[in-house]
Amino acid sequence: MYTYKSGIAQIDQISGGFDAGTNILILAPPMSLGDQLAYALTRPLTGEYAIILSTNERAAEVVDAFKLAGADKRFTGVIDAITKSSTPTIVDTPRLMFVSSPTDLTGIGIKFSNMIETIFEGDFSDGEAGLFPPPIRFCVNSISTLLMYRRLEVLYQFLHVLTAKLKKIEGVGVYLLNSESFDEKTLSLIKQLMTCVIEIKVEQNVNFLRIRGITGVSGDWIKFQVTKGQVVILP
Amino acid sequence: MISTGVNGLDEMLGRGIPQGSRVLYSLEPGANGQLFMISTLSCALARGHSCMVIFPNTTVDAYRNDAARMYGAHLDLTSGPVTFLDAIDRERIGKSAGSAEARAREWKARIQKLCHDHKVTVIFVYFDLLYEEFGLETAMEILESAQEGAGGMKVTIILEHLNLEGAPLLERFIRDLSFDFVLAIRSSFRPFPNFNYFTLVHTSWGPVPVRSLPFIIAEGRVIPYIPRIVVTGPANSGKSTFVMNAADEGHSIDRQESDGGSTTVALDFGWLRWKDFDITLYGTPGHTRFDPLMPPYLRHAMGAIVVIDATKPEMLPRARHIISMIEKRRIAYAIAANKNDMPGVMSAGEIREGLGIGEDIPVFPISATKKADVHSVLESLVASITQFSN
Fold first, then answer.
1. Which residues of chain A lie closer than 8 angstroms to B128, CB-CB?
2. Which of A134, A135, A137, A115 lies closest to A124, judged by CA?
3. Which chain A positions have a beta carbon within 8 Å of B330's beta carbon?
4. Kind and range of the H or E element at B82?
5. Fewer Cβ atoms within 10 Å of its own Cβ: the N or the C terminal residue of chain A?
6. For residue A107, which residues of chain B lie inside 8 Å, CB to CB?
7. What is the least distance, in Å, from the CA of A235 to any CA of chain B?
8. 8 Å CB contact of B164 and A157
9. CB < 8 Å to B126, chain A
10. Chain A residues in contact with B62 (beta carbon < 8 A)
């Protein structure tokens, strides 16, 4: 079974990375490195693919962020849930797909399936071939925005299907949630869908992360930053 | 009658949907079924029905563009007799009315006015957000208020809904709300091929059996097809017997061999009804000279069964070659290890090793002469394709 490198030595040295089928929740406060960490964990390595469901940034911005982090854009796809509201005529491509708004869970589900199928069919990367079966990293940025538009119970059911599908295709999922905007019930319900939780806190402008749910990996707070898509652990 | 725009489906319904019906297109997450609603809307407009479309999660422009791209140029949502309530209306209603009761009243007032002004006879509703905001009963009350605006004419209501609750929600539509036609649009949970199918769950106007059909989308049309399972394997492994014992009806095209036995020279055909699917079984000839026929047989197949003779380890390399053709098409398959009631059979482990397959591929020790054995293989294969499990 494929193992996804995390780029975090504390994980990769002990378990080799994330097992296929792992779903990771990043609980991060506003103004932290939460989204950068999510993108760093989603950045496709050679032969891998990435799909980002973006409710906060336009597809072009997401692709730029991944390019800056050194990702090959031919292996990076975006499901954009914001551009269509201002540009209704925008047209899907194999790697850039658009849904009308973050409320449109029907559209999100269909585009997700379509993009996965496109990857499996080999029509995703302009003729370039990755590994097969394709290792796929999937990122939801962010659950917080989806929760602004849809009820928790509905979103829970939807994410239940999405996380299960990701297990089925032996991908890895990264889901970003604002740790300060939601009550304990919301956090605990979303955590139920996850295999692993990475918490982030910020003290005196320094970001710390704590990893929960990976056997053998310490749950201590560690200082970190993200530079050009790489997670750097600070002393 | 209002046509669904899906040929096979209209025939199953008896020419389409009767005027005044309550219709639900229930979509499972990921199932590519939005074209059912769009194609029914297109047919209703083409027949001159005055339509209203309610889509609270997008704008008119985005909806028109999506619909035109999905369905093609035949759908005219700019000059046809159609009116809309969209995300902007929803936002205005939310701002102008504080309580849920007030919002429901405002929705009713707007729907009634539009129905009255435009003499609407068919309403198409993307139901998710109304259901989430008001609950099932109140959301349906809002839509039923269209009758009052229609001046006594029976308005047809057609919903598309993302069903995250499964069969219990369908039951509520049928039992509590007396819906006339419920169609569940589903997809397999296999990543590839992403196999979409619809199940005709309920109709109020005739004894239509529950029935499932896979479909593809091509040239802006939903095209149902008869699901196919390919039964293949080395020569003389028992494929014809398997097909004949699996099928409700079947036919084999055989030729006498020089040793007095017979071999399949074209195809074994079988038809059976299984798990709401009408399945066609294609039994392939096992000799290598027929290998060029395999790719067309495997095209659009929902699954494959590789029948091997469990007493003949020397045939495993040939079976392995056949498996490689199936794996190339990434089709779900299972191994039926036939003649399990004979002496000297290989164990499942030996078969796996000989075929080079992992634990994820099921191996069934069977006797193809026993219907129960054959059906257990089919059941497992169909379940693995259509059902979801964590």
1. 103, 105-106
2. A115
3. 120
4. strand B82-85
5. C
6. 34
7. 40
8. yes
9. 106
10. 84-85, 88, 100
For residue A108, what is the nearest residue in chain B, using CA coordinates? B30
Q: In which element (H, E) is residue A136 found?
A: strand A136-141
B228-386 is classed CATH 3.30.70.270: no
Can you give the pLDDT at residue B148? 82
Residue B384 contacts A where some CB pair is shorter than 8 Å: no
Sign of CA dihedral A142, A144, A145, A149: positive
A164 touches chain B (CB under 8 A): yes
Per-residue pLDDT of chain B (390 residues; tens, 9 = 90+): 899 988 778 878 888 999 999 999 999 999 989 999 999 999 999 889 999 999 999 999 889 888 888 877 667 787 778 999 999 999 999 999 889 999 999 999 999 999 999 999 999 999 999 999 999 999 999 999 988 877 778 899 999 999 999 999 999 999 999 999 999 999 876 655 567 899 999 999 877 777 788 888 887 888 887 788 999 999 999 998 998 888 776 566 555 555 556 655 556 777 777 666 778 888 888 888 888 888 888 877 888 999 999 999 999 999 999 999 988 877 889 999 999 999 999 999 999 999 999 888 899 999 999 999 998 898 888 777 765 433
Residue B178 and residue B22 in contact, taking contact as beta carbons nearer than 8 Å:
yes
- Residues of chain B with Cβ-Cβ distance to A116 below 8 Å are 191-192, 194
The listed CATH number (2.115.10.20, 3.30.460.80, 3.40.50.300, 3.40.50.2300) that belongs to domain B7-224: 3.40.50.300
Domain ranges of chain A: 3-233
Q: Which residue has the tokens 């053709």?
A: B325
Beta-carbon separation of B330 and A164 below 8 A = no
Alpha helices in chain A (DSSP H): 9-15, 34-42, 59-68, 83-86, 105-121, 143-149, 152-168, 184-191
Nearest by CB to residue A151, choosing from B64, B132, B330, is B132
Q: What interhelical angle do B348-355 and B316-328 show, nearest 10?
A: 60
ipTM of this complex prediction, to 2 decimal places: 0.91
CA contacts within 13 A on the Cβ side of B36: 32
Q: Averaged over A121-139, what is the pLDDT?
A: 89
Nearest by CB to A150, which of B27, B132, B165?
B132
Say if B213 is an interface residue toward chain A (CB within 8 Å): no
Confidence band of A158 (pLDDT split at 50, 70, 90): very high
Instruction: Tell me what pLDDT residue B133 has.
Output: 95
Q: Is CATH 3.40.50.300 the right assignment for the domain spanning A3-233?
A: yes
Cβ contacts from A onto B, under 8 A: 92
Give the whole-angstrom CA distance, residue B140 versus residue B147.
Answer: 12
The predicted structure's pLDDT at residue B255: 54
Closest Cβ opposite residue A101 in set B57, B187, B190: B57
Nearest CA in chain B to A100: B58
Look up residue B255 and give its amino acid: R
> Which tens digit of pLDDT belongs to each residue from A77-89?
999 999 998 898 8
Q: Give the residue from chain A lying closest to B192, CA to CA.
A: A117
> CB neighbours of B379 closer than 8 A, spacing ≥ 6?
B274, B275
Tokens at A68, concatenated: 């800056």
Tell me whether A158 touches chain B (CB under 8 Å): yes
